[in-house]
Amino acid sequence: MLVERVRALPRLLRDGASRLDTAVPAFAAAARRIVLTGVGSSAAHARFLAHLLTERYALDATALPLSAFLTPRATASEEILIVFSQGLSPNARIALADRARGHRSSS
Questions:
Q1: Can you tell me the mean pLDDT for 37-63?
Q2: Rounded to an integer, what distance in angstroms lies between the CA atom of residue 107 and that of residue 92?
Q3: Backbone angles phi, psi at 62, to 5 degrees
Q4: C-beta atoms surrounding 78 within 10 Å
Q5: Between vectors from CA 81 to CA 75 and to CA 83, what angle results, nearest 5°?
Q6: Up-side HSE of residue 51: CA atoms within 13 Å toward CB?
Q7: What's the rounded Cα separation, in Å, for the pair 82 and 75?
Q8: Cβ atoms of 75 and 33 closer than 8 Å
Q9: Which residue in 43, 51, 82, 87 is deepest, having the highest Cβ count within 10 Å?
Q10: Closest by CA position to 32, among listed 57, 60, 51, 52
Q11: Contact indicator for 36, 62 with CB cutoff of 8 Å
């Protein structure tokens, strides 16, 4: 089963990149900046997507630690917030609280 999954990786990566090429322009036009966050392994996913959006699509994307959302940020209303979470963890709710303060959020 592992060999089969490894062989499928190139196709899965191409398919994922193709979907990303379609989705990114639609949400990128909606904000000046994209902010991503997560805790633990979810933080690694947030950093990877921020890097990909910056390098591949030349977007202003950054990954912030969850602690950055403990106080209101002045630019929140101009950003798209993407929160990575295993389920909807209590920690993710810290970043999602920014939604009530003007973020357009996606989880």
A1: 92
A2: 9
A3: -145, 145
A4: 13
A5: 140
A6: 6
A7: 15
A8: yes
A9: 82
A10: 60
A11: yes
Considering only CA atoms, give the Rg of the chain. 15
List, in sequence order, the alpha helices (H) in the chain: 2-28, 41-57, 92-96
What own/partner pairs with CB < 8 Å and gap ≥ 24 does 42-49 have?
42/84, 42/85, 42/86, 42/92, 43/84, 45/84, 46/82, 46/84, 49/82, 49/84
Per-residue model confidence as pLDDT tens digits over 64-92 = 999 898 887 777 777 888 999 887 777 77
Alpha carbons 43 and 45: distance in angstroms, whole number: 5
Token pair of 8 as six digits: 């499928």
The residue type of 72 is P
Structure tokens belonging to residue 67? 């602690």
The SS3 assignment for 97 reads helix
| Eight-class DSSP state of 10 | H
Residues written for the chain: 107
Q: Determine if the pTM surpasses 0.85.
A: no
